[in-house]
């Protein structure tokens, strides 16, 4: 589904990603872990086409298409979804209008008619239930005045509505209490299918108690320095990142 080859990216002339190689297949959940400032959010920003970052080298293919040549909105329409580390508030735009516009933008791209009002309402109801989103929140402006937990849950709601092929969750767990964490993780688990994939970016192993990754990567100084199974996340939980930093710095 996703193939990243030797990806380098910089911001304001400062190189942040320094040669990322990563392959994600349909049906897989990958955890991207790593100390603060290692480039995790940068990787998600580059994959979704954030114009602040410049790709200086490398290739990215998504379902056979050259992702780096696509506009951010087309990457979304092709099925890439990013849940932000810090979801933005959009005052004056209701959740319902926002979601309907997003869904119709995807449908138009696929050559489909806009969704009918009744189908849309039915879908909203089903997905709200799925992620246990407070029904009242969808009558409000996007994220405006939402608590931290509500914003994160709302991200998973948007993911459920858009049914992406590849979901990238950037520190969706940060700032969540244990109940919100469980609900968010359960939402992600319910949305998992053989034909979609997920990249879970997290500093801590906590979220991975609920979302079982198939493969765990450690990003450090803009490179993937370790790749292993779920046991790597447990080891990081126990030992922290210092030992990996030391090993890599010595290498
Ligand atoms: P992580 O998500 O792993 O904590 P980031 O991708 O946010 O790491 O950051 C990686 C590096 O890029 C850090 O050194 C950070 O300071 C730098 N960086 C990120 N965004 C910007 C920006 N907008 N301007 C300058 N430096 C940035
Ligand atoms: Mg960070
Ligand atoms: Mg980050």
UniProtKB/TrEMBL annotation:
Annotated Pfam families: ABC_tran
The entry's keywords: ATP-binding, Nucleotide-binding
Keyword Nucleotide-binding: yes
Record has Nucleotide-binding as a keyword: yes
GO MF term set: ATP binding; ATP hydrolysis activity
Annotated ABC transporter domain residues: 2-246
Family named by the database record: Belongs to the ABC transporter superfamily. Ycf16 family.
Name of protein: Fe-S cluster assembly ATP-binding protein
Organism (species): Microbacter margulisiae
Organism classification: Bacteria, Pseudomonadati, Bacteroidota, Bacteroidia, Bacteroidales
């Amino acid at each position: 589904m996703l193939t990243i080859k030797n990806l380098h990216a910089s911001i304001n002339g400062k190189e942040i990603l320094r040669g990322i190689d990563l392959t994600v297949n349909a049906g897989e959940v990958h955890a991207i872990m790593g100390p603060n400032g290692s480039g995790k959010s940068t990787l998600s920003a580059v994959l979704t086409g954030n114009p602040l970052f410049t790709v200086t080298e490398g290739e990215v293919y998504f379902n056979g298409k050259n992702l780096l040549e696509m506009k951010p909105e087309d990457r979304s329409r092709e099925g890439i979804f990013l849940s932000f580390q810090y979801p933005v508030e959009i005052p004056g735009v209701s959740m319902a209008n926002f979601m309907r516009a997003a869904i119709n933008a995807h449908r138009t791209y696929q050559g489909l008619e806009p969704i009918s009002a009744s189908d849309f309402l039915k879908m909203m109801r089903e997905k709200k239930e799925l992620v246990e989103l407070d029904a009242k929140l969808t009558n409000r402006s996007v994220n405006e005045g939402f608590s931290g937990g509500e914003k994160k849950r709302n991200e998973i709601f948007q993911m459920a509505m858009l049914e992406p092929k590849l979901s990238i969750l950037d520190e969706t767990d940060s700032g969540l209490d244990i109940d919100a964490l469980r609900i968010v993780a359960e939402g992600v688990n319910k949305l998992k299918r053989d034909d979609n994939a997920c990249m879970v970016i997290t500093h801590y192993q906590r979220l991975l108690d609920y979302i079982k990754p198939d493969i765990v990567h450690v990003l450090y100084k803009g490179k993937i320095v370790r790749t292993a199974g779920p046991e790597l996340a447990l080891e990081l939980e126990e030992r922290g990142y210092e030992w990996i930093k030391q090993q890599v710095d010595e290498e």
